Fold this protein.
Amino acid sequence: MIIQLDFDGTVVNFDFPNIGRLNVGCIEVVKALFNAGHHIYLNTYRANISEEALAEALNFLEVHEIISMLSGINPQKKIPPAWNPDESIKNGELFIDDDSEGIALKWDHTGQFKMVDWRVVKSQLIQKNIIY
């Protein structure tokens, strides 16, 4: 399956144009997706904004050893559909993105922005046999 992975609000808490803090649980789930044979693509608005903004995200992913798990980087962000793992299985493409309506969210450390709740997402992916 193709996994479309967002950056701001998903891998890190939202702090654009800065790079936010790593979202707890992200690396564990991304590794599980990679180890299950899924093809992970970075799908971020940073690609739409500037090469510099994208490079900052890629540097962060390299430091946190996520970049080697990516199959590619979308040149423009694809708009994520509503969160529905069953539909994603049928379509062969899953978007993990804080903009996906219905995806589990939690408040970040500032209490100002919501971000993906990787604990809940992990549980849902295990339940649907997307990761093990």
Notes: The chain is about 35% helix and 15% strand. The longest strand covers residues 2-5.
